[in-house]
């Protein structure tokens, strides 16, 4: 029998009668869930939350919705064993990469004329058929002609085994013609079982009550299909634990099966003592998890959770002796947890999570380095032991781990499986190889059919340690990067232009005559098409306006006490170096974002550095901006070597006082190292590394907009990180965002980059706006976009962020290019203490003071006393000599 449950009225299913029925059905295997619409995976979530069912097929009722395979894949990923596709749609959908054992087809035999043809066509691509037939008879048994027809179709369908082994399953759905009162019964089930088919029965027609004549008894629906050739008519029954390990052999009767299903415990038929409720006297009871029927329906397997000392009357777990391997290890660890002998190492691990952490890391590392078969087995055993200690400590059983594995094996969508940057051996190796390459290139392309997907976490389900690791950025291998950057800085410092030219040839693949061009720049070298020029001019005007308004040119003057006047005024930093990235994309917009505030501030010398193009020239857009902001030179170099040239100066490039601008890890590391080198005597704006974005979205957000924003930053580089904090989003809303991410990403020219950066990025589901903003403040993103109802209200709670984009019509792209705000912003969480580039970045402030005689006389005592406290006599004396004169003069005037 195949039971069906209609999920459109879930309230009804919460009554005790149905809860009980569903639990019992779960013991017997597959259940069909009818869902209202194909896209409605949330009704399944709701059902699974309320009831324990692990093997279910999904039958989406509305036929017309089967237009593509995306929703089908989603339902299978969610955990459905099979999806039932209507015969009218099965040939028009591309189901080629869904395994046959996950697909069932429903055929309406009253309407379909060429069922046989269809079955032949579908051979090897589906694993079950549901035949719908209308009964025009009120007799208790099915009409002979119908049985013959169904039998022929069943034989045809079952002619071949499935590609992965096993037989096609046939379900029969019987409907009544209006004037006929045919009601399926145990006899119908028996009749259909005779032709290897099973009856599909709605849950409303089922009962656990053996005396109910109207409804179908669940136990009988099973026992009526069993066969036995034993003289005592019992069924041989293997009893196994949740992981399938045989505990012993017993016998079952129709009556014991009925009792087992009713009580959901291990009940068998003892050949000497009748009904046997396992553990009733010994305490070694069993919770029944499944009853499975073998391939020829004459033996059973009871899957049970065994309590007490074990199944065997000799007080061991199995009748075949003690367990070995993983089961034995798990048992030992559980015993140790309850009562460990003195000095037990395992018990030490239970009590010392740090030690356990270290051992797991150590063993994982050793397993990675193991080479021979013996070494690998040895190290894997170590790792499994320590992992299992962690599991047992936290109440996780081997069964729980296997359930996870089984769940994952049901996923159709393959995970990209990239390692987190921290563990990404491939990219470390690649970085090493890149030393000799011109430019960083994307490592791999998106495999066809691979879903481009962010990782997903739920704040309420993750540990503090996990949360901490989410707050971290893709690791910058600081030591490693520093070790590469140090010799580059030294080389340029010592050998100047010659080193710069050589390093540009090495890293950018360009051999230059001279590493610099000076203003005035050739008009033909900065010629632009009209639309580009107009766009740059418009962006320039907006950025200028906003940055000019930031410049308070007046001096600050405060009389702190009578006759004591303090003031502060600003001066531009004289010589500034602006780094414009040009590795994976050349960014003239960055030239605007750095050049304009430098110009507004009045810096006397502006030098721009940017990697050259392959032909040794600078992109005309960058040169046009350089001209507009009044740059005196453009350095044709990128990476650490460009930073070194700006910091130390070369024969052709003047040293600057401050270096600003974003860049990759080499650029950022070089800026930080140069700043720490007192011989360079420079400052930097801030660490502005790989782009980041955090989006907070609620139920009012538009999935397409959210996805487009996330991708807009993910396309910068493989190391970009984007985060979506989803505030109480329904599974459906979230799924729509995920779908948009995949669809939009798949058609991007930089799909190779986003298919690397998106899987390293993550979605965090939270339950409230407070949780969302707290996480965002802890993360301190470079960019924060608020896709929220009344988004502006959240602004006052934002504590840490580089720049905020408020509401669904404020895409980050506007700030990246042209609205007016700056796009050079702190990353890696530095938004906690750094501002983005602004006009003040290019200014320094000088303070001054002037005291009158009266002022000095009034303040003198305070200063002299403080100097005495610090025992700095010269300080005290500088005031004393004056105060003495002032007082003498005052005496004379009296
Ligand atoms: N935070 C911000 O405000 C902001 C703004 C714009 C861009 N960005 C970021 O800037 C970064 C730009 O990076 P990019 O790589 O495209 O350009 P880039 O100009 O920063 O770096 C390219 C240079 O790196 C050097 N390089 C490459 N491989 C090297 C190696 N193995 N060893 C030493 N040097 C090497 C080369 O000299 C090359 O010219 C991106 O991550 C982007 O997200 C950030
Ligand atoms: N999003 C980058 C800041 O992290 C800036 C940029 C330049 N071009 C496009 N975007």
Automatic annotation (TrEMBL):
<comment type="similarity">
    <text>In the C-terminal section; belongs to the histidinol dehydrogenase family.</text>
</comment>
<keyword id="KW-0560">Oxidoreductase</keyword>
<dbReference type="InterPro" id="IPR038019">
    <property type="entry name" value="PRib_AMP_CycHydrolase_sf"/>
</dbReference>
<dbReference type="InterPro" id="IPR021130">
    <property type="entry name" value="PRib-ATP_PPHydrolase-like"/>
</dbReference>
<dbReference type="InterPro" id="IPR002496">
    <property type="entry name" value="PRib_AMP_CycHydrolase_dom"/>
</dbReference>
<keyword id="KW-0862">Zinc</keyword>
<dbReference type="InterPro" id="IPR016298">
    <property type="entry name" value="Histidine_synth_trifunct"/>
</dbReference>
<feature type="region of interest" description="Disordered">
    <location>
        <begin position="407"/>
        <end position="445"/>
    </location>
</feature>
<dbReference type="GO" id="GO:0005524">
    <property type="term" value="F:ATP binding"/>
</dbReference>
<dbReference type="InterPro" id="IPR016161">
    <property type="entry name" value="Ald_DH/histidinol_DH"/>
</dbReference>
<keyword id="KW-0479">Metal-binding</keyword>
<dbReference type="GO" id="GO:0004635">
    <property type="term" value="F:phosphoribosyl-AMP cyclohydrolase activity"/>
</dbReference>
<comment type="pathway">
    <text>Amino-acid biosynthesis; L-histidine biosynthesis; L-histidine from 5-phospho-alpha-D-ribose 1-diphosphate: step 3/9.</text>
</comment>
<keyword id="KW-0368">Histidine biosynthesis</keyword>
<feature type="domain" description="Phosphoribosyl-AMP cyclohydrolase">
    <location>
        <begin position="250"/>
        <end position="320"/>
    </location>
</feature>
<dbReference type="InterPro" id="IPR008179">
    <property type="entry name" value="HisE"/>
</dbReference>
<keyword id="KW-0511">Multifunctional enzyme</keyword>
<dbReference type="Pfam" id="PF01502">
    <property type="entry name" value="PRA-CH"/>
</dbReference>
<dbReference type="Pfam" id="PF01503">
    <property type="entry name" value="PRA-PH"/>
</dbReference>
<comment type="pathway">
    <text>Amino-acid biosynthesis; L-histidine biosynthesis; L-histidine from 5-phospho-alpha-D-ribose 1-diphosphate: step 9/9.</text>
</comment>
<dbReference type="GO" id="GO:0051287">
    <property type="term" value="F:NAD binding"/>
</dbReference>
<keyword id="KW-0028">Amino-acid biosynthesis</keyword>
<keyword id="KW-0378">Hydrolase</keyword>
<dbReference type="GO" id="GO:0046872">
    <property type="term" value="F:metal ion binding"/>
</dbReference>
<dbReference type="Pfam" id="PF00815">
    <property type="entry name" value="Histidinol_dh"/>
</dbReference>
<keyword id="KW-0520">NAD</keyword>
<dbReference type="InterPro" id="IPR001692">
    <property type="entry name" value="Histidinol_DH_CS"/>
</dbReference>
<keyword id="KW-0067">ATP-binding</keyword>
<feature type="compositionally biased region" description="Polar residues">
    <location>
        <begin position="427"/>
        <end position="445"/>
    </location>
</feature>
<dbReference type="GO" id="GO:0004399">
    <property type="term" value="F:histidinol dehydrogenase activity"/>
</dbReference>
<dbReference type="GO" id="GO:0004636">
    <property type="term" value="F:phosphoribosyl-ATP diphosphatase activity"/>
</dbReference>
<dbReference type="GO" id="GO:0005829">
    <property type="term" value="C:cytosol"/>
</dbReference>
<protein>
    <recommendedName>
        <fullName>Histidine biosynthesis trifunctional protein</fullName>
        <ecNumber>3.5.4.19</ecNumber>
        <ecNumber>3.6.1.31</ecNumber>
        <ecNumber>1.1.1.23</ecNumber>
    </recommendedName>
</protein>
<dbReference type="InterPro" id="IPR012131">
    <property type="entry name" value="Hstdl_DH"/>
</dbReference>
<keyword id="KW-0547">Nucleotide-binding</keyword>
<dbReference type="GO" id="GO:0000105">
    <property type="term" value="P:L-histidine biosynthetic process"/>
</dbReference>
């Amino acid at each position: 029998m195949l039971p069906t449950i209609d999920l459109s009225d879930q309230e009804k299913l919460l009554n005790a009668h149905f809860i009980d029925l569903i639990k019992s059905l779960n013991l017997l295997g597959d259940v069909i869930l009818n869902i209202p619409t194909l896209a409605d995976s949330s009704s399944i979530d709701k059902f699974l939350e309320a009831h324990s069912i692990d093997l279910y097929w999904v039958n989406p009722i509305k036929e017309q919705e089967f237009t593509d395979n995306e929703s089908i894949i989603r339902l299978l990923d969610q955990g459905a064993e099979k999806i039932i596709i209507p015969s009218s749609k099965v040939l028009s959908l591309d189901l080629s990469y869904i395994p046959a054992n996950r697909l069932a087809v429903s055929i309406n035999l009253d309407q379909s004329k060429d069922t046989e043809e269809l079955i032949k066509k579908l051979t090897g691509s589906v694993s079950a058929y549901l035949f719908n037939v209308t009964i025009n008879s009120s007799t208790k048994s099915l009409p002979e002609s119908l049985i013959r027809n169904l039998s022929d179709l069943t034989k045809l369908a079952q002619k071949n085994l499935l590609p992965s082994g096993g037989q096609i399953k046939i379900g029969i759905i019987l409907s009544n013609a209006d004037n006929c009162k045919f009601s399926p019964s145990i006899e119908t089930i028996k009749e259909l079982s005779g032709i290897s088919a099973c009856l599909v029965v709605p849950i409303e027609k089922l009962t656990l009550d053996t005396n109910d004549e109207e409804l179908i008894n669940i136990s009988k629906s099973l026992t009526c299909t069993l066969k036995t050739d034993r003289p005592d008519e019992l069924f041989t029954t293997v009893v196994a634990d949740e992981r399938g390990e045989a505990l012993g052999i017993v016998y079952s009767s129709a009556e014991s099966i009925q009792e087992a299903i009713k009580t959901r415990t291990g009940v068998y038929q003892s050949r000497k003592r009748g009904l046997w409720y396992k553990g009733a006297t010994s305490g070694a009871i069993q919770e029944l998890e499944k009853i499975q029927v073998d391939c020829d329906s004459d033996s059973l397997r009871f899957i049970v959770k065994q309590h007490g000392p074990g199944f065997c009357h000799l007080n061991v777990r199995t009748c075949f002796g003690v367990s070995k391997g993983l089961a034995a290890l798990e048992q030992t660890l559980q015993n140790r947890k309850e009562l460990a002998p003195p000095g037990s190492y395992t018990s030490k691990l239970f009590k010392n999570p740090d030690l356990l952490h270290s051992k797991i890391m150590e063993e994982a590392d050793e397993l990675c380095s193991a080479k021979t078969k013996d070494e690998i087995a040895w190290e894997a055993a170590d790792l499994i032991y320590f992992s299992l200690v962690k599991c047992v400590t936290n109440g996780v059983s081997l069964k729980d781990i296997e359930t996870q594995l089984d769940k994952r094996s049901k996923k159709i969508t393959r995970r990209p499986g990239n390692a987190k940057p921290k563990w990404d051996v491939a990219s470390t190796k690649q970085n090493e190889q890149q030393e000799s390459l011109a430019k960083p290139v994307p490592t791999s392309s998106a495999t066809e059919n691979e879903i481009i997907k962010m990782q997903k976490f739920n704040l309420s389900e993750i540990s503090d340690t996990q949360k901490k690791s989410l707050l971290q950025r893709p690791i910058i291998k600081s030591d490693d990067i520093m070790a590469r950057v140090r010799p580059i800085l030294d080389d340029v410092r010592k050998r100047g232009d010659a080193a710069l030219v050589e390093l540009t040839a090495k890293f950018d693949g360009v051999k230059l005559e001279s590493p610099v061009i000076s203003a005035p720049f050739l008009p033909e070298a900065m010629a632009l098409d009209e639309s580009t020029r107009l766009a740059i001019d418009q962006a320039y005007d907006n950025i200028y306006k906003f940055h000019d308004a930031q410049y308070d040119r007046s001096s600050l003057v405060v009389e702190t006490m009578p006759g004591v006047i303090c003031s502060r005024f600003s001066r531009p930093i004289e010589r500034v170096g602006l780094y414009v990235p040009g590795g994976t994309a050349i960014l003239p917009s960055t030239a605007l974002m750095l050049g304009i505030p430098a110009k507004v501030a009045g810096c006397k010398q502006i030098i721009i550095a940017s990697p050259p193009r392959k032909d040794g020239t600078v992109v005309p857009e960058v040169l046009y901006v350089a001209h507009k902001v009044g740059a005196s030179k453009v350095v044709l170099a990128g990476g650490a070597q460009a930073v070194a040239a700006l910091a130390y100066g070369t024969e052709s490039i003047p040293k600057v006082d401050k270096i600003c601008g974003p860049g990759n890890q080499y650029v950022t590391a070089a800026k930080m190292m140069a700043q720490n080198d007192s011989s360079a005597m420079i400052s930097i704006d801030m660490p502005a590394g790989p782009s980041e974005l955090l989006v907070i979205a609620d139920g009012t957000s538009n999935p397409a907009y959210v996805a487009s924003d996330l991708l807009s930053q993910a396309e910068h580089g493989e190391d970009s990180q984007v985060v979506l904090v989803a505030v109480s989003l329904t599974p459906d809303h979230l799924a729509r965002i995920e779908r948009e991410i995949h669809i939009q990403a798949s058609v991007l020219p930089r799909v190779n980059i986003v298919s690397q950066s998106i899987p390293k990025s993550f979605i965090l589901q939270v339950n409230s706006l407070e949780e969302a903003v707290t996480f965002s403040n802890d993360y301190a993103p470079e960019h924060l976009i608020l896709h929220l109802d009344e988004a502006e209200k959240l602004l006052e709670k934002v504590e840490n962020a580089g720049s905020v984009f408020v509401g669904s019509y404020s895409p980050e792209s506007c700030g990246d290019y042209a609205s007016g705000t700056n796009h050079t912003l702190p990353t890696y969480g530095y938004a906690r203490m750094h501002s983005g580039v602004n006009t003040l970045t290019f200014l320094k402030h000088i303070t001054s003071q002037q005291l009158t005689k009266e002022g000095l006389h009034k303040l003198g005592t305070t200063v002299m006393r403080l100097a005495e406290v610090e025992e700095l006599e010269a300080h005290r004396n500088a005031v004393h000599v004056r105060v003495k004169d002032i007082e003498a003069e005052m005496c004379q005037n009296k």
